[in-house]
Amino acid sequence: MTIHFRRGLGVTSGDIAATVVTDTYGYYFANLAPGIYTGELVKPGFITTYVVGVSLSDYKNTGQNATAIKIPAADEIRIVLTWNEKPLDEDSHLVGPTPNNKAFHTWYHEKKYGYSGELYADLDHDDTNSYGPETTTIRKRVDGTYTFYVHNYSGNGPGGANTLSASGAKVEIYNGSNATPVKTYHIPAGSGKEIYWHVFNMTVNGGSLAFEDKNELTDTEPRANEDFDEGMVNTGPVSDSINVENNPGATDVITVGGLSAGEVVNVYDGYYNLIAQSAPVQAGSDSVKVSDLDLGAGSSTIYVSITRPVMGESPLLPVNILGEAEYAELKTTIASTFADHEVPVTLAVYQDVYLADPGVLLPPDLQVKVIGLEPVSTSVTMSI
Ligand SMILES: [Ca+2]
Ligand SMILES: [Ca+2]
After folding, report:
1. Distance from Cα 89 to the centre of ligand 1, integer Å
2. How far is the CA of 126 from the centre of ligand 1 (A)?
3. What string of DSSP letters covers 120-159?
4. What residues does each domain of the chain span?
5. What is the pTM of this model?
6. Of residues 233, 241, 239, the one with CA closest to residue 259
7. How many angstroms is it from 289 CA to the middle of ligand 2?
8. Using one digit for the tens of pLDDT, what is the confidence trace for 190-212?
9. Around ion ligand 1, which residues have CB less than 5 A away?
10. In terms of CATH, what superfamily is 239-323?
11. Which ligand is nearest to the CA of 150?
12. In the CATH hierarchy, which fold is given to the domain comprising 71-233?
């Protein structure tokens, strides 16, 4: 993927100030003089799209991400939402028919709808910092009526200036592999303060599409009360199934359990950069290990997600990790103090947890789970 940057807002032709090529993960770094730039994303097989970037004088601006819009497969339908700077966060909502005569709803909170192991529709990402694009794709068509609407998530703002109607929002629909939109909707400009833009209804009947132009601003969510089908829920990992060992140097290990064959674990650093990916979970196993990581000497937060066949990547789960020294101390403490520890029968557990002998408070990062009680001997098994 190549990005040409041109100086100025919305400048799509003329002098190119810088050209960068993104890496495998789509990351790039452009060294530009301070100012506002428009980046033109170019790659064979993709629709040329634009992103606005702000270059600051003294530090790297990491927020200028864009989604390259892939030219759809022959039977896919893509709905692309873009808008101006304000409001910061507009959201794409698609409601449509499912194979079991219910309705699905793709939106930022539930980006994918799948049925019987196949992906039917998805939203690529939730843009929350102006401009978009957000792309909703119908991967498999089901006969019936689809409704697309936009929500002003971040609200009208102080003084009510950041309205949808003043946002210059635009929705383009691409049918199949055609790189020219079959339909383009511009938000009706005006003084309206409504928070929903009902853009269109579209009826699919076999290979044909029939559009009903709505272009209405409303405060009532269109099609909010359907018989929704949950489909396949692409949940992220749960913290209980993740174990992080912050060993000295770059020998750190993350183990994730509760997985199914073919799933892949992704590990991101605190800036959402992908730093490691596991091999797919082997048949017959339910966990993977990511080794030889360097999580740094200090404590920090990383993010973990699961990529599943068909459903793609789950939401990211933040995981707080101990620094190396704290982890070493914890390991030693566990080994020396808590192994096979007998808990007296009179122990009461309140907010703070003590062990009677040697009477020390448990370290705050230690979680004690009682996983079994033996009523006769009063011994307790702990897992840490
Ligand atoms: Ca959004
Ligand atoms: Ca380490």
Report:
1. 5
2. 4
3. EEEE-----SSS--EEEEE-S--SEEEEEEEEETT-S-GG
4. 1-67, 71-233, 239-323, 340-383
5. 0.56
6. 241
7. 15
8. 778 999 999 999 999 988 999 99
9. 89, 91, 126-127
10. Macroglobulin (MG2) domain (2.60.40.1930)
11. 1
12. Lipoxygenase-1 (2.60.60)
